[in-house]
C-alpha cells in the first residue's frame, strides 16, 4: 500500500465532514499525541470549530469499532478531529522536515478523496448489470408487444373462421336439392313406362 492510500484510510467522515484524528496525525508527524494536542491548545485561536472539534463519546465508540482500536489506548480525553483546513493549520505548528513532507502528502490525500467522491471509478460489473437490466426490460417490452400482436392475430383468425363457418353453412343451404316448381315430371314418366 502506498503512502497516499495509507493516509486516505485514515480520513474519516464525522458529522458530514472528512477529518483526521489527532493520534493518526501524531503518528504520521512522528510526535506524541499529547505534544500535538498541547501545541493545538497553545494556539487554540488558529483552530475554530470548522477546523477542529473534539469527538463525542458515541462518535468515538462508533469510530473505534470501525478502526478496531482497543478501549485501553491510554487516552484520558476524547480525540480531536481535524478537518482539511485544520491539518493545514497544524503544518504551521509542527515544523520538522518529516511533518512538512507528511503534510504535503496529507493535502494530496484530501484532494484525492475529494476527486474520488466527485468522479467515482467506473465499476465494470455494475455497468454490465445495468446493461443486462436494460436488455431484460427491452426483451420484456418486445414480448409484451409480441403477445399483444398474437392476441390481435388470434382474434382476427377467430373472426375469419367464424365468417368461413357462416359461409359454409350458407353454401350448404344453397347446395341443398330444392323441390322442383311445377309438375313433378319424373313421376309421370315412370308411370308411362309401365
Care to describe what's here?
By secondary structure, the chain is an alpha+beta fold. The chain folds into two domains: 116 residues, no CATH class; 48 residues. It has eight helices and four strands. It has a four-stranded antiparallel β-sheet. The longest helix is centred in the C-terminal third of the chain and has 52 residues. The mean pLDDT is 79.
Straight-line N-to-C gap: 126 Å
Give the amount of beta strand, in percent: 5-15%
Q: What structural class is derived from the secondary structure elements?
A: alpha+beta
**Radius of gyration based on Cα positions:** 45 Å
Helix count from the secondary structure assignment: 8
Total domain units: 2
Helix content: 55-70%
List keywords for this structure.
alpha+beta, four-stranded antiparallel beta sheet, 8 helices
Question: Quick recap of the structure?
Answer:
The chain is an alpha+beta fold.
Topology:
Layout: H1 3-9, E1 12-14, E2 17-21, H2 22-29, H3 33-42, E3 52-54, H4 57-67, E4 80-82, H5 84-93, H6 97-118, H7 124-175, H8 185-193
Antiparallel strand pairs: 1-2, 2-4, 3-4
Helix pairs in contact: 1-6, 2-3, 5-6
